[in-house]
């Protein structure tokens, strides 16, 4: 009974603190993710006041948090939309992977961390934060802008790529070797293809079985189906996160719409628990030695992400201001980066011990500076710079015509 009492006190106090931090983040106009990470660092191993009784609770909650993040992400797209975006945005997705995964991979090798850690860090630097970016676009009133579909296409490609990347990383971190890792990837590819085919052809039947008219039954049904499929996927070494993502894609119509509304509060709760748990298992004393590498990595990969968005928007025929808005909006990393680093931390054969601290510092830097950078195109001095740049381009073009 005493242990249960301590558990309730710790969990209640920390959740209350997260609520206050979430309100503070909305007031100052930043993402709550860095504040949740800092709260975990403050009360975890090596923190100001370690919470021992509630660590197991937060570990389970963190697993559920990842699953809910991914199923909610899947609910945003139908199978047809996902396939259509894949076809149209594939070149931009390839640029994104080359520009942003390779720096992380090379950086880990330069630090002498080995190729498995390099594969993990490549994923950390590759994927932008869909949640943070969606909030920034809404806050800045850019949802209807011409460059916004380009941004969303890049995010969709990243989400789909994660469905293939996560099983491979999970297999590598389990120490099964490259051959078995390739087999796990093949299973993942087959699973994704089969689920997409079933969702396109029979998705309406799955949605019909889960009535949107009864909120309680819908909530229990979708949550139960998601956890069941996620568990089975994990059993098949495909990754629980991927299983949850595919469940979200398979649901459509009113069921998907109402499920999004019902699951959103649960997603917010357990996502906060997930970020806190990652902070809890990261010793803040490990962060100062990796702060400079994290700054260098963040500066490099934010620049490459800006280039990704700029080139993707230019390919879509967007004017230069929109290209910069697209590139700068894509810079924050968040939930997926922490998910990937979390897999490394909880691996059967843990990789580089400094990886979690580096990933935490890296996400903190990008998730704080990213939304600020996204506001740059709206500032007077940036608009003036763009006008001067356009004038210089026109003058250079006129000189070329005169020379001809």
From TrEMBL:
TM region(s), chain numbering: 6-24, 33-51, 57-77, 89-109, 115-138, 150-176, 182-205, 217-234, 240-257, 269-285, 291-313, 334-351, 357-374
InterPro entries xrefs: Cation/H_exchanger_TM, Na+/solute_symporter_sf
Top-rank lineage group of the source organism: Bacteria
Annotated signal sequence range: none
Annotated Cation/H+ exchanger transmembrane domain residues: 15-374
Membrane topology note: Multi-pass membrane protein
Pfam families linked: Na_H_Exchanger
MF-aspect GO terms: antiporter activity
Record GO biological process: proton transmembrane transport
Subcellular location: Membrane
Keywords: Membrane, Transmembrane, Transmembrane helix, Transport
Primary localization: membrane
A single Gene Ontology CC term: membrane
Record PANTHER family: CONSERVED INTEGRAL MEMBRANE TRANSPORT PROTEIN-RELATED (PTHR42751:SF6), SODIUM/HYDROGEN EXCHANGER FAMILY/TRKA DOMAIN PROTEIN (PTHR42751)
Entry similarity comment: Belongs to the monovalent cation:proton antiporter 2 (CPA2) transporter (TC 2.A.37) family.
Protein's recorded name: Cation:proton antiporter
Organism in which the protein naturally occurs: Micromonospora robiginosa
């Amino acid at each position: 009974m005493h242990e249960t009492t301590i558990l309730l006190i710790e969990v209640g106090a920390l959740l209350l603190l997260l609520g206050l931090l979430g309100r503070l983040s909305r007031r100052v106009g930043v993402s709550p993710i860095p504040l949740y990470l800092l709260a975990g660092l403050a009360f975890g191993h090596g923190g100001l006041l370690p919470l021992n009784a509630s660590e197991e609770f937060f570990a389970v909650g963190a697993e559920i948090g990842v699953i809910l993040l991914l199923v909610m992400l899947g609910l945003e797209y139908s199978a047809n939309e996902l396939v259509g975006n894949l076809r149209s945005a594939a070149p931009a997705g390839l640029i994104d992977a080359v520009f942003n995964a390779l720096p992380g991979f090379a950086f880990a090798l330069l630090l002498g961390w080995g190729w498995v850690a390099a594969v993990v860090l490549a994923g950390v630097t590759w994927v932008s934060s869909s949640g943070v970016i969606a909030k920034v676009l809404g806050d800045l009133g850019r949802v209807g802008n011409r460059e916004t579909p380009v941004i969303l296409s890049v995010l969709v490609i990243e989400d789909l790529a994660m469905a293939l990347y996560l099983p491979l990383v999970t297999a590598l971190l389990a120490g099964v070797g490259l051959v078995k890792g390739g087999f796990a990837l093949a299973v993942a590819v087959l699973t994704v293809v089969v689920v997409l085919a079933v969702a396109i052809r029979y998705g309406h039947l799955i949605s019909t079985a889960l009535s949107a008219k009864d909120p309680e039954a819908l909530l229990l049904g979708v949550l139960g189906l998601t956890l069941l499929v996620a568990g089975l996927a994990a059993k098949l070494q495909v990754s629980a996160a991927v299983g949850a993502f595919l469940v979200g894609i398979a649901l459509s119509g009113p069921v998907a719409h109402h499920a999004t509304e019902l699951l959103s509060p649960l997603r917010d709760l357990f996502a906060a628990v997930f970020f806190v748990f990652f902070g809890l298992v990261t010793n803040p004393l490990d962060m100062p030695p990796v702060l400079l590498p994290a700054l260098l990595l963040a500066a490099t990969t934010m620049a490459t992400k800006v280039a990704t968005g700029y080139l993707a928007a230019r390919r879509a025929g967007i004017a230069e201001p929109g290209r910069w808005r697209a590139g700068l909006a894509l810079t924050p990393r968040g939930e997926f980066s922490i998910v990937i680093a979390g897999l490394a931390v909880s691996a059967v054969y843990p990789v580089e011990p400094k990886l979690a601290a580096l990933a935490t510092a890296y996400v903190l830097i990008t998730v704080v500076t990213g939304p600020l950078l996204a506001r740059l195109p709206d500032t007077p001095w940036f608009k003036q710079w763009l006008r001067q740049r356009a004038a210089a381009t026109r003058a250079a073009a006129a000189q070329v015509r005169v020379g001809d």
